[in-house]
TrEMBL record:
<keyword id="KW-0472">Membrane</keyword>
<feature type="transmembrane region" description="Helical">
    <location>
        <begin position="315"/>
        <end position="334"/>
    </location>
</feature>
<feature type="transmembrane region" description="Helical">
    <location>
        <begin position="25"/>
        <end position="47"/>
    </location>
</feature>
<protein>
    <submittedName>
        <fullName>Phosphatase PAP2 family protein</fullName>
    </submittedName>
</protein>
<feature type="transmembrane region" description="Helical">
    <location>
        <begin position="67"/>
        <end position="88"/>
    </location>
</feature>
<keyword id="KW-1133">Transmembrane helix</keyword>
<feature type="domain" description="Inositolphosphotransferase Aur1/Ipt1">
    <location>
        <begin position="147"/>
        <end position="350"/>
    </location>
</feature>
<keyword id="KW-0812">Transmembrane</keyword>
<dbReference type="Pfam" id="PF14378">
    <property type="entry name" value="PAP2_3"/>
</dbReference>
<feature type="transmembrane region" description="Helical">
    <location>
        <begin position="340"/>
        <end position="362"/>
    </location>
</feature>
<dbReference type="InterPro" id="IPR026841">
    <property type="entry name" value="Aur1/Ipt1"/>
</dbReference>
<feature type="transmembrane region" description="Helical">
    <location>
        <begin position="283"/>
        <end position="303"/>
    </location>
</feature>
<feature type="transmembrane region" description="Helical">
    <location>
        <begin position="210"/>
        <end position="228"/>
    </location>
</feature>
Length: 369
């Protein structure tokens, strides 16, 4: 108890949910684990009926993600003493650091919720990505031509990318959007997962995020992507065998180079198509347009910041809009892909809240018994 008091300024600043018991964290973790397990069972059942299950791997993202986790841990261990010395300035520094490391790294919240959830997420993401790469074998791309027509209907006979190109015609703007679309999104994905696993906001909000997160990758990233199998504007000609309205856009994107390097989007698109043709399962592989997981996840990130972090929420809504614009300008998605994604995420966020409330009520009832 004395150690806890000596760390109170520090703990109040960064340590979450001091009112929760170990049972609360275990109950929340089990909920996430069960949802991820159901995702795995469904994927294996679908693949068993259509393909060889050896194509489904649970270790695809583990190495890369655990490197990120290890880096964050090392940075915390190294920089935590500087934080304490400059912002807390305790009288007994060594004793404070020992207690601080114990509370931050070995608390019930970390052992029963943060670490297990951080272990579950890359395994579930590997299942998602493995199945995504197999979608064309289960249900060949068939929806691209219809999505192209639907875009033109929504935008009154115009191709959305042509309208946006008139607004964002400078290649420098395209380079910025290219950076925001992929490199920044990848970083944001990792930061947001770590934020909700290790953050100081309520367990209910964090559980709701992780339930919604797994549901998004399961329902939108796998189920909907398989049913609405489509490749995207950048592959329109290869998939449909038609010239299509996107050749001019792709020529423009290929013309933009920085020090001889193509845009990130163009390089990744070429790598994904090469992997699709060679059927090589690789990190980040698989092609799917409808719905857009880039837009779905950023919308989910924004919703998860509601009420407690309104500034971050607004910034993430703006970022979601930028990602939607980028998905069209960079040839990744049809405009309707993003619109459908946002609507679906709003529904998923609502029902993940309902599910979270049910889980927490069940925990309360079991505690009273």
């Amino acid at each position: 108890m004395k150690g806890k008091k000596t760390c109170i300024r520090d703990v109040a600043f960064v340590r979450p949910n001091q009112h929760c018991t170990g049972q609360h964290y275990v109950w929340a973790t089990l909920s996430v684990l069960i949802l991820a397990f159901l995702h795995t069972i469904i994927i294996y059942a679908v693949v068993t009926l259509n393909l060889d299950t050896h194509q489904i791997r649970v270790d695809k993202y583990v190495y890369n993600v655990y490197i990120i986790y290890s880096t964050v841990l090392v940075l915390f261990i190294c920089f935590y003493p500087f934080f304490v010395m400059f912002f807390v300035r305790p009288k007994k520094l060594v004793k404070y650091l020992i207690n601080g490391y114990r509370w931050h790294l070995l608390s019930k919240e970390r052992i029963f919720f943060s670490y297990p959830v951080l272990a579950i997420i890359p395994l579930d993401k590997s299942i998602y990505s493995s199945f995504k790469a197999e979608i064309p074998n289960i249900n060949p791309f068939w929806l691209d031509a219809s999505l192209c027509k639907l875009d033109r209907i929504i935008f009154l006979g115009q191709d959305p990318w042509r309208i946006l190109r008139q607004i964002f015609s400078n290649p420098e703007i395209t380079r910025v959007i290219d950076f925001l679309y992929h490199p920044l999104w990848i970083s944001l994905l990792s930061v947001t997962v770590l934020f909700h696993a290790l953050g100081r906001h309520s367990l209910e909000n964090r559980l709701r995020f992780f339930l919604g997160y797994i549901i998004v990758w399961t329902i939108l990233g796998n189920a909907c992507a398989a049913v609405l199998s489509s490749a995207g504007p950048c592959y329109f000609s290869q998939i449909t065998g038609q010239a299509g309205p996107y050749e001019e856009l792709m020529r423009y994107l290929h013309s933009i180079q920085t020090d001889g390097q193509l845009l990130n989007a163009v390089q990744i698109q070429e790598r994904l198509w090469s992997g699709h043709i060679s059927t090589v399962l690789e990190y980040g592989g698989g092609i799917s347009a409808m719905p857009s997981l880039h837009i779905a996840t950023t919308a989910l990130f924004a919703l998860s910041m509601r009420h407690r972090y309104p500034a971050a929420e607004k910034m993430l809504y703006i970022y979601t809009l930028v990602i939607w614009i980028g998905s069209i300008l960079l040839g990744w998605h049809y405009a309707v892909d993003g619109l459908v994604s946002v609507l679906c995420v709003m529904v998923i966020w609502y029902y993940s809240g309902k599910l979270t409330n049910t889980i927490m009520i069940m925990k309360k009832d079991s505690s009273e018994e």
